[in-house]
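Practice problem 4.
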């Protein structure tokens, strides 16, 4: 098969669909369609079915074969693509090897399926090469990624030769990046077994494909807190000294919303967010090992962080933040949200004397519990809004959502709502506005 001759893009050989299509091209590239067998016929139908499934899952349109092949090229993390991600056009022998691969891609990319489909009695499959997605505007798709891939596929089609095809890819790698880390904003940590996942102890970084599209301006109030967070984040992105951040305070005040907003606001400047849960702290070193050599800036995000007396996961976190032999990479920061300023639960037992519980080094015990919070260089407080601030949040959110209601009536209903739904908070205000929108839609 042609794909077996690839050098830099060798990983694409493992893709089932491209291998099947490449085999069909090899068998019938000379226009010899007299010896069609049932295996090849089945292979063709199976491949076409996979392309349709590919379009259905991600909303792709146009020439699905070109879209699929382009997606493989964009996701191939190899010596050339990773170098272009860091520096753009690179020099050296690697360019000759990539041109060799581009010659193979050009043949695959421009293969004319017309005669093959006619000979197989599958002429209807021509529609796959001019596919109209009936629900292309659906909110379940990541339009940003899909449209970039479709646009690049058209540019590769227009390329006059392999040199122009290579330049198109190089520019894409430099502007948008490579693979899942280049295409997606946010990620979570997974764990997979099998021989192909032996690296990093099976710890994987999986994209979150449907992140809520919020901006920092969507959070009403908290201007000082937001500015402190923005200043630290922008310093991090610009390579200036910056700190790990702890966002703490009352529930429902927008701490988590701020982190999500950072992912949306600074994605184009290279920021990526990786969400890590408490039980995954032991995997932090394997996560960092996968991202420390990339050109992006990563915030490892921990939501609602706190520990009970019996939980020891915080010890992994302390070592990663500051204290281990290996220095934390410059492209990694840790941001956490918590309702507690001191993340590890303390009790009156911590203040008792030696005779009470037998702890000889009582002060050491206390220092152990507060040392984790101290390793966050920036602490930002999000407090419960005052009644006046709560009213401002409600009226602002109602206005943004087009709710037309006399202000006195709006605030009266909001006050009744908050009494039964958790008290004064931005979350409560948003839930109240969502309730009003639901009532409007129903009527």
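Answer key:
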């Amino acid at each position: 098969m042609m794909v077996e001759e690839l050098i830099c893009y060798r990983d694409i050989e493992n893709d089932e669909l491209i291998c099947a299509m490449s085999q069909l091209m090899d068998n019938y590239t000379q226009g010899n369609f007299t010896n069609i067998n049932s295996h090849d016929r089945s292979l063709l139908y199976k491949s076409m079915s996979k392309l349709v499934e590919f379009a259905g899952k991600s909303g792709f349109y146009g020439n699905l074969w070109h879209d699929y092949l382009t997606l493989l090229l964009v996701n191939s993390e190899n010596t050339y693509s990773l170098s272009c991600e860091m520096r753009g056009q690179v020099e050296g022998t690697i360019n000759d090897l990539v041109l060799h691969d581009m010659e193979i891609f050009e043949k695959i990319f421009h293969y004319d399926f017309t005669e093959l489909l006619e000979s197989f009695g599958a002429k209807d499959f021509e529609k796959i090469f001019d596919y109209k997605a009936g629900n292309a505007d659906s909110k379940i798709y990541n339009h940003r990624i899909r449209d970039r891939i479709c646009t690049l596929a058209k540019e590769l089609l227009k390329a006059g030769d392999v040199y122009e095809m290579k330049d198109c890819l190089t520019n894409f790698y430099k502007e948008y990046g490579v693979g899942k880390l280049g295409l997606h904003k946010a990620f979570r940590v997974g764990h997979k077994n099998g021989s192909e996942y032996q690296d990093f102890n099976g710890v994987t970084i999986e994209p979150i494909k449907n992140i809520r599209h919020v901006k920092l301006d969507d959070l009403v109030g908290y201007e000082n807190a937001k500015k402190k967070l923005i200043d630290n984040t922008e310093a991090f992105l610009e390579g200036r000294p910056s700190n790990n951040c702890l966002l703490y305070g009352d529930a429902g005040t927008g701490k988590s919303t701020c982190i999500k907003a950072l992912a949306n606001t600074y994605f184009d400047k290279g920021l990526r967010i990786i969400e890590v849960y408490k039980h995954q702290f032991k995997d932090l070193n394997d996560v960092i090992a996968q991202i420390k050599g990339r050109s992006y800036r990563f915030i490892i995000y921990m939501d609602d962080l706190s520990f009970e007396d019996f939980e020891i996961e915080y010890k992994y976190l302390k070592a990663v933040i500051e204290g281990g032999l290996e220095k934390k990479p410059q492209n990694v920061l840790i941001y956490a949200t918590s309702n507690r300023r001191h993340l590890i639960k303390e009790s009156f037992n911590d203040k008792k004397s030696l005779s009470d519980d037998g702890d000889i080094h009582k002060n050491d015990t206390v220092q152990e519990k507060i040392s984790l919070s101290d390793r966050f260089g920036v602490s930002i407080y999000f407090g419960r809004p005052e009644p006046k601030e709560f009213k401002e949040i409600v009226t602002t959110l109602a206005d943004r959502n087009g709710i037309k209601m006399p202000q006195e009536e709006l605030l009266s209903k909001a006050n009744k709502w908050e009494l039964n739904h958790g008290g004064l908070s931005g979350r409560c205000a948003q839930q109240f506005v969502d309730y009003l929108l639901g009532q409007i839609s129903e009527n």
